[in-house]
Amino acid sequence: MSIAEKLKQYKNKNIHIVGIGGAEGSAIVEFLVANGISSITGHDFSEKSDFKKAFNNTHLSLKPKEREEALNHLLNLPIIINFKDHYLKDIEEADIVFVSQVWFKYPQNMPILENLKDNRIPFKTITNLYFELAPCQIISVTGTNGKTTTSRLIYSIFEKWKKENRQVKIFFAGNDRQNVQVLDKLQEMRKDDVLILETSSTQLLLNSDISPHIGVITNISPNHLDDHGSFENYIDAKKNLIRHQKKDDFAVLNYDDLQTRKIAEEFKDNSFLFSRKEKLKEGCFKDGDKIIIRKKNKEVYVLNIKDIKIPGNHNLENILAAISSAYLFGIGPEVINIGISKYTGTKHRLNLLYNIDGIKYYDDTQATTPEATVAGIESFDDDIILFAGGDDKGMNYKEMAKKINDKVRLLILFPGDASEKIENLINKNKIDFVKVNNLKQAIEELKRYYKKTELTKGSTVLISPGAAHFYSKFVESTNKTLKDWIKLLK
User: Strand, coil or helix: what is 255?
Assistant: First the structure.
């Protein structure tokens, strides 16, 4: 069935889009209008006069001129847009409601949207559109930690593969805020193309009863419990990624993670495991300095560990997941080897910003869970100065605090309820500790610390919050990049 035929379900329907100024909402409306669907009402709870600022803050993947053009185009579409004074006006008359992935977190939406959903009005997200409409094979990655890096590793492999298969196109989109959505490319996609999606647990809540050809779950630990209500609900949302796979589809799962190993038992007909700790009878694993794939009694060498450019055991797990996905798709080990060895890292995930007088500064601001920050700390052997803190998502900080006590010399803690949890768990008699309100204060405290403390060359400043909203609150709001702030230490 063509995309045009699939889109008939939206013709002559009263469609409402909540959060039309967001990256997902604006992509949805642009796509629908471009395909001849214009009976659309958009909603945004900002004032009309503030809409430009709100739009710019959610379209960081676009350059300033591109943002301005995209905003002007959106405002001139043949649709109705309800701003703050008329927010959700007439939404009770909707036949279909498109929402952002965290629509339920905003008090402005409750209880109106909750009641609509309970009354069986179809709710959809941008992920539903990708799964329902893409004519090509989809590889989709989810997990508590590592989904961004794993998705980009897969993309790196497939980009290399594409050079040898020039008729094929590779598309990449999803949950990462630095990505441009590719709904507008759906008409270009052909059966032999590949769409790689990073997918969050909240995007998987509104399930389309469709699963990707290859679904990857990197790991699962308690996170977003404020969104899901319980750890069990969170796990169940992750399972939606692979719940509807067909016989020839694959679920790539982490053997070393308790929850994903349990899922592998539940979905064993589709499961393919990876491990950095065990030599699996079948799967992808580390064997000494080598990465090996074993499938149907055939063993294939893929890569030597020394060729990997990104640090940390957690990244080794991400690499094993990416290798598994590419191999199951049918890509040979030589191409996989090049795709992995050429990959130097994901923006805001253990990215080296500067090496100043032998002290290295790493941007790890995508580490928004305590587990991700623990993985970052474990990536380094020398002295660590840690910037951390932010908003809590119902997570346990005991292990992160233990790791801070063991390996961190100075903790610079930013405001937030997660920060309060961390502060209550650390041993202030064992490590140096200071609280700041912003990056300016953090840089000043760091300068003072350098004057009174001898640090060895090879020491690390790790900006790894372990909590939510650090980047938006403490970096984006300053109109400076993290690199600009660190540069002040030169």
Answer: coil
Q: Residue 209 burial by CB count (10 A; 0-12/13-18/19+): exposed, middle or buried?
A: exposed
Q: What residues have CB less than 8 Å from 444, skipping those under 6 apart?
A: none
Residue whose tokens read 């960081």 = 60
- Give pLDDT tens digits for 413-458: 999 999 999 999 999 989 999 999 999 999 999 999 999 887 777 7
Cβ(200)–Cβ(146) under 8 Å? no
Contact 241, 206 (CB under 8 A): no
What average pLDDT score do residues 88-99 get? 97
pLDDT tens per residue across span 262-286: 999 999 999 999 999 999 999 999 9
Q: What gap in Å lies between CA 241 and CA 222, rounded to an integer?
A: 18
Give kind and range of the element (H or E) at residue 251: strand 250-254
Alpha carbon distances (Å) from 37 to 16, 91, 181: 12, 17, 19
- Dihedral pair phi/psi, residue 384, rounded to 5°: -125, 135
What pLDDT is recorded for position 477? 85
Residue 339 and residue 310 in contact, taking contact as beta carbons nearer than 8 Å: no
Quick one: DSSP state of residue 278?
A: S
Higher per-residue pLDDT: 479 or 40? 40
Nearest Cα to 74, choosing from 91, 58, 90?
Answer: 58
d(CA 167, CA 266): 38
168: which 2 tokens? 């094929």
> Lowest-confidence range among 16-20, 175-179, 211-215, 396-400?
175-179
Phi, psi of 5 (to 5 degrees): -70, -40
Place of tokens 């298969």: 165
The residue type found at 443 is I
The pLDDT assigned to 145 comes to 86
How far CA 239 is from CA of 45, 126, 158, 207, in Å, comes to 32, 18, 25, 10
Residue 177 confidence (pLDDT): 58
**CA–CA separation, 350 vs 309, rounded Å?**
11
Residue 331 has what pLDDT?
97
Instruction: Find tokens 């694993």 and name the residue.
Output: 285
- Could you tell me which of 133, 30, 116 has the C-alpha nearest to residue 72? 30
- Tokens 């109109």, residue located: 479
Burial class (CB in 10 A: 0-12, 13-18, 19+), 447: exposed
132-136, 331-335, 369-373 — which is least confidently predicted? 369-373
What sign does the CA torsion over 229, 231, 236, 239 have? positive
Q: What's the confidence (pLDDT) of residue 224?
A: 62
- List, in order, residues 6 or more apart from 185 with CB less than 8 Å away: 171
Which two structure tokens, joined as six digits, stand for 18?
């909540």
* Closest listed residue to residue 218, CA positions, set 272, 143, 270, 326: 143
Give CA–CA dist 284/318, Å, rounded.
Answer: 11
